[in-house]
Amino acid sequence: MSFRGLVLTVVAPVMIGVGYWGNAEAAIESNCSANLGGAVSCEFTNTGAKKDGACIVMEVVRSYDAKNYSYPSMGGKGAVLTSNKICSGLVEAGDIRERNPEVTWNIGERVTSPMGFCASDNPWFKASNNCTIQTKEIPL
Fold first, then answer.
1. Are the C-beta atoms of 53 and 89 separated by less than 8 Å?
2. Dihedrals φ, ψ of 97, to 5°?
């Protein structure tokens, strides 16, 4: 995880899919990064022996009480801003698939960017330090 000014870049490797066909299997791993503007880049790697695909969502999680954020109505510590579904498509065995999807970020019915979600009016609470980011596997 690296922080550069107001840009948050996080690489979250996750083993996200194992499919079985006979004795061979597919194993899809994802490495995804996102910045505070909401841009996402993902790399899906199949380290298995058969082709397969996988999907993930990225989650931005608030680290502090609601009163520390510019928009406290979005919740406090543990509140989650979620991206839409990001899928690899079919990835051949031993291959890599790169994705730079257009992503929408939502908390409930509200659409916002990670910057809007993590921002604070308090100068001691910098947006890049107010949230963590994680990757979560979801069904195809």
1. yes
2. -125, 120
